[in-house]
């Protein structure tokens, strides 16, 4: 996520009835009254969402990073014979034994650097736009149209930060026999040989993937929450289970788009050469055509196992960490109010 699963529009809640888990609705010992929560100064609430989102984004991307490395390799359309894996565990074991203990973590530093600011910007933009647009569309209430527009614009900002760092640089460092040994070396080489445009070659693909991913993710998550946490209290177990299920369903459904994105990011030389493609592959239509020529319909689901295994705990971590810090920071802010 972000991957990277994006946390989506409905996490932060709303003035009328917060969608998704949030602070408990009833007051009690150690719990937040919903009226007090909604009356927080806007600056405090915005800072809370930024910090909680940044921490959740970093945790989400770093804890599951080794599996993400495996996913990138398993999506290779024409992998090197030494980099053909039957499963996630076998791939991790083989990477460590043949390439070194730290090989599955190569590129994690650039992901950490991008995840924090990207998720902080996401929530800052979302909260600000949601409030402003809701006042226009539905004064005093919760406008779904405002939430949708705010989430879409926030995703544009998030991916603008994460796409060069996580997608282009990270995935090239993760590939087998990658010629790059460091983040800075990769950035310099890509800039020198492919230009600045290379860092955003898959940007539209990323956005195209994130829209259906987020839609499926949140539909599934909300359905799970209706059964597991109908009162929408701070309930860690329900956040974890619902997040894991939602992440798995969304990940499986959007794997074809992720395969195309990986091809655009890595510009896999062996695969492109076999089709006598010169220069750099660009555009979603070309990526779809290339994947189909190389692997047929099954090619669109390469790495689906690794993607689901990565996304389930990743999404569960993101939801649980985000909601915990949101609840904890809001509680502290309320305690400091005169």
On the 0 to 100 scale, the average pLDDT is 76
**Low-pLDDT stretches:** 1-30, 34-40
DSSP E strands, number = 0
Major sheet description: none
CATH architecture of the largest domain: Alpha/alpha barrel
The CATH homologous superfamily name of the largest domain equals Mitochondrial carrier domain
The geometry reads as: globular
Percent helix among the residues?
55-70%
Q: How many domain units?
A: 2
Count of individual helical segments:
13
CATH topology of the largest domain, by name, is: Mitochondrial carrier fold
- SS-based class: mainly alpha
Q: State Rg.
A: 21 Å
- Look at the structure and give the CATH class of the largest domain: Mainly Alpha
Percent strand equals under 5%
In whole angstroms, the N-to-C terminal distance is: 39 Å
**Topology pattern, helix = H, strand = E:** HHHHHHHHHHHHH
Subcellular location: Mitochondrion inner membrane
GO molecular function, one term: ferrous iron transmembrane transporter activity
Function: Mitochondrial iron transporter that specifically mediates iron uptake in developing erythroid cells, thereby playing an essential role in heme biosynthesis.
Main location: mitochondrion
Describe the structure.
- With 338 residues, this protein is mainly α.
- It folds into two domains: 152 residues, Mitochondrial carrier fold; 110 residues, no CATH class.
- Helices cover 68% and strands 0% of the residues.
- Helix 2 runs antiparallel to helix 5, helix 8 crosses helix 9 and helix 8 packs antiparallel against helix 10.
- The two termini are 39 Å apart.
